[in-house]
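User: Could you walk me through two proteins back to back? I'd like the raw sequence and the structure tokens for each, with a short line separating them so I can tell where one ends and the next begins.

Assistant: Of course. Protein one, sequence then structure:
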Amino acid sequence: MNLTPELDNILQKVREVAVGYGLDFFDTIFELVDYNRMNEIASYGGFPTRYPHWKFGMEFEQLSKGYSYGLQKIYEMVINNDPCYAYLMESNETVDQKLVMAHVFGHSDFFKNNSWFSSTNRKAIDTMANHGSRVRMYIKKHGYDSVERFLDCCLSIENLIDPYSPFIKRRKEPLNTHKDKDNKPVKKIESKQYMDSFINPEDFIESQQKKLDEEKAKEKHFPEKPEKDVLLFLLEHAPLEKWQQNILSIIREESYYFAPQAQTKIMNEGWASYWHSTIMTSNILVDSEVIDYADHHSGTLGVSPGQINPYKLGIELFRDIEDRWNKGKFGKDYDLCEDYEALRRWDKGLGLGREKIFEVRQIHNDITFIDAFLTKEFVQSQKMFTYAFDRGMGTYVITDRDFKKIKNTLLFNLTNMGQPFIYVLDGNYKNRGELYLKHRYEGIPLKKNYARDTLKNINALWGRPVNLETVEDNKDVLISFDGTEYKEVYMGLRK
């Protein structure tokens, strides 16, 4: 539904203010929808249509019940696309529509300019619709149950990608060598027949031939190096039918599209919140809307004990960066100053804050954002802490307020988007065509039921036994699934 004349006038004013602040966003198209359509779009991950699968229906049912019972309400929905599409719920008050518009322009600016989104598909709406059409075609041809079962397997491993691969060259270019080159024997030095045994000793020739055979066998080992993009490995080597390959490639392509959003959740929401706050207080609000705006804004930035609110952490960190660079609270002189009172009053009047946050918005993701700009002073001012569950008390309790521990905990939870590191080590384990995976243990064990279900689904794709090396109770463990039963073999204590 098109916007009403009133909302369209508001939109033009909000856009004008956003541009005046230097935001550079895609052309942004707003659509007015009812709550039912908004929940449907949200269940599809923000897209008007996707391929058919029960998980979308489950998400829609959950959102619909949450809205009906007054437990949750979706205020904004925006898609990383060119042009950028955003949705307004028609039942929202005018002040909420203004806030959503300002928030969306912040997101659109982030999508367009943040480096981690630079390799994403900017025509994602068309691509998702095409993916849906292809899957429906396979359902018609192969049956709904067969396609759904295969989708279940693929979706269970959709996180097993390498999110940094669009920016890093992982593989060597193939060499233009002749196939018969590997079959050539070791070269001998030309000699007279009676001198051959001295110039080309038999034991030397045999050792060189053995070395050549070992190098040739090593070249045939795959993958040559541990492969983090498990989906790509399966696409290249699993015995899949053509329609199955296409579906797996769809899941992989969509996983890479969504990956930067998981990598920049704190920054993205913080940036959008910073700008909706700035824009809304720039003659966008009328007097009668101030209280409602303050109430809804504070609700967005509310903090629940023991939880990280990405909106709150992101906006406060951007504000802190702006303040520090405005006052010159950075550099060698500031870092080496030990006078607390001097640090408190420090203000060189540089006015570089706004320029700096635009720079930060362009080059960082959540990990580098936290690592570079989370300071001890910020942690203290925001009253941050680490927590753990106390079994004796039956509740969560504060365990530490130490800056380094808080920062390390944040970085640990953000690494690899909070997912376990899984690599393919061998696609021909024991020379029997078995798949050998390894979990890079970082101190948190895998959930065994999840690991077993994942192995079962990978086995369905690979068609041969699948093995996963992991750690349990400080012991190296090999979990295997051959298609019918699971086996666990303890490989010894960790060193």
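----
Protein two, same layout:
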Amino acid sequence: MNNKKKILIVGAGPGGLSAGMLLLSKGYDVEIFEKERVVGGRNAEIKQDGFTFDVGPTILTVKFILDEIFAEAGEKTKDYLHFDLMKPLYRLYYDDFSFDVTNDPEKMKETIKLRFPGEENGYDLFMKKEAIRFERLYPCLQKPYANFFDLLRPMTLRALPSLHVTKNFFDYLGKYFKDQKLRLAFTFQAKYIGMSPFKCPSLFAILPYMEHKYGIYHVRGGLSKISIAMAEIIKKKGGTLTLNTGISKIIVENGVAKGVKLQNGEERYGDTVVLNADFAHAANNLFEPGILKKYSKEKINKKAFSCSTYMMYLGIKGELLELSHHNVVIAKNYKENMENVYDKKIISDDFSMYVRNASLTDATLAPNGMTNMYILVPMPNNSSGIDWNIEKTHVRKLILDALEKRLGLKDIRDRIVTEKIITPRDWENSGIHLGAVFNLDHSLDQMLLFRPHNKFEEVDNLYIVGGGTHPGSGLPTIYESARIATDLILKNLKAR
């Protein structure tokens, strides 16, 4: 007879998979349900006409966190994944020049000296000061926040002066760099969490610091291979992973999560439920009316959410040797572009975009002689009311025009052999509230204690992992959310 505690996990995204690995390694019985036919969620892969595209994340930094998750599960990343350290980190394109960003300190200072004379010493100061902030702030992101007293931990109190709450990300970088274009090279990373650097809290200056300190990695075959490796480990350890199986309800009895109801009507019961779905979508759709009061539909609608994205995945004839692996195109009027996305919620003719040319590094992603091209453009979330049935084709033209004008790819239209587009409406239709792919906004009033807790507040035996809970969006923090939730589950089950 199997007396092991049963853990049910809703969703095989990076949070659910990480939690599954960790819980299995502790001897628990784990069953994961995923509504799609592949694992990974926004960290999944798309296979099309011989090309392999990452759905979402394409940049891995602070790789040691992923290494730690594997190690805690009794595994090694090197046994499953091949990592390429990016040199340069990426290429930035402004309206009048471009340059490569590197995490080699001397090369980076030389580049700054060449492009922004007199600013090069700011780089040393940035690396020195942000190292201190990172050491103080990141440990705070690795702990749960269940009540006000958790904010009074010595480590949290020690970190508070480092928050600089009166300044946004962009203004805060002014202490290191005066030139606004140079500042953008260290603040565009706000897009990693779906925010504008002109509104993003200054604490996120640790994002560019992490890139420059620890580097950026590409995973051979795409970052989706991380999710695939995790799924392999889960199966190896005896876990059950069921694909093409959506959840219609979390079964709650007397304020306690007892199991899940599948979309086919079946019910599965367990000792604990872990939710790895888009938080707002789950709160709105997976609970019987009246169960959630703190996260009712009315209250969720008052929350601030991230931007969305317009995605293009292109298979291209030939090579694109003129591009780097990672390419960031900065709008001519970056601040206006950000205001259009986040405040006015309109489509900009002048926009920023990210272009990955991964075939430059990884030949496995495209047929021989072809190039795998991934394009992401920040867009308003669906509170905008934009009709994407109408605008989809228009934005496609704008992006292809920008590839020609900003990146010099004059014949790009003629070289497309396959393509796939995902609009903000498509994201919402896939189960993402408002198509806000980076989840709840990362303003200070929606972080730490003020973000949905890793252990659900209103339902016992229910835990949350992923970008909608603490510590937030991005692969490293999602892995941390799984580690936090797992620790809480272990304490709770042992206490029974």
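The two ends are 20 Å apart (CA to CA).

Let me know if you want the two compared in more detail.
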